Amino acid sequence: MRRSRRSKVSNKGPMSYQKTRMGQSESGHIHFAARQQRSDKCTALQADVPDVPLAVVEEILLNLPAHQVVRVCRLVCREWKELVDSASHWRERCRREGIQPCDASRTPEDWRLFYFLTKKQRNLLKNPSADDDLQGWEIVCNGGNHWVAEMNRKPFSDDTVTKCFVTSYGLCLKRQLIDLKKEGYNAAFMDQVQPHIKISDWYAPRFDCGSEYEICVELLDQKKNPISTFQPEKVLFEQWNDEPWCQMTHVFKDYGRGVRFIRFTHGGVDTQYWAGHYGIRVTNSSVEICPSVQR
């Protein structure tokens, strides 16, 4: 009896195992067949879709937002990536949107970078032309009868600029601190690209009073220590002048890594020590992040 039971157990075990293995094999075969059918259907569908010429693809991409083209379309396949990375694509996009170098003989080193920087380019200074009186500016020195905002005594070349800041008989200085990260220029971009930083300032004296103009623009690191500084000699105007509007410009290039802030300071004083506001006038100040071009 014992031997018979062992025999039944030993005979039953392999049969049960074989059935289980057969079931698994059959089940596995069914899953594989289903996957093969789905794969065949996908292949058939792909075969039905005709290849789209790259010229047509590029035309489509040129009509999509540039950021979407870079972040999404560029990842579709190798051909699309090469198309989006090509200089010709961004040169054509610039042409269609009227974005061209100021000097046509000096082409951009990187057309894609040139496109995005030009689209993003703007004046980073707030209230540059005294439209909101002194709002947005930190007063550093407020000598004499202090800073004021007045209408221009002489027309400005840009007829939209109608007001200016005016100094007095004591030194008047004001400044703004620009946080580049808050303006959309992160640390990695500033360190790797080091785009040109262009500053501009307009100033003028009164015809009947001598005056002095000064400016200082600093590129600062994270702790607000200077990395690069533009501080030309003070400009002196004698009494009885033609009240000319003059422009001060400078472009920071190859300034190195670490720039996180820009500090813009300007102002002046009258040299006759007259009560009132006979000192230097300043307006239409600007700080811009610009694309570089080939030299």
Number of strands: 11
Helix content, binned percent: 25-40%
Spans where pLDDT lies below 50 across 5 or more residues: 1-35, 41-49
Q: In the CATH classification, which architecture of the largest domain applies?
A: Sandwich
Major sheet attributes = 6 strands, antiparallel
* Shape designation: elongated
Question: What does the radius of gyration come to?
Answer: 35 Å
Mean pLDDT value: 84
Instruction: Name the beta content range.
Output: 25-35%
Determine the structural class based on helices, strands and strand pairing. alpha+beta
| CATH homologous superfamily (4th level) name of the largest domain | Galactose-binding domain-like
- Series of H and E elements: HHHHHHEEEEHEEEEEEE
Number of domains: 2
CATH topology of the largest domain: Jelly Rolls
What is the CA–CA distance across the termini? 103 Å
- Number of helices, counting only DSSP H or I runs of 4 residues or more: 7
CATH level-1 class of the largest domain:
Mainly Beta
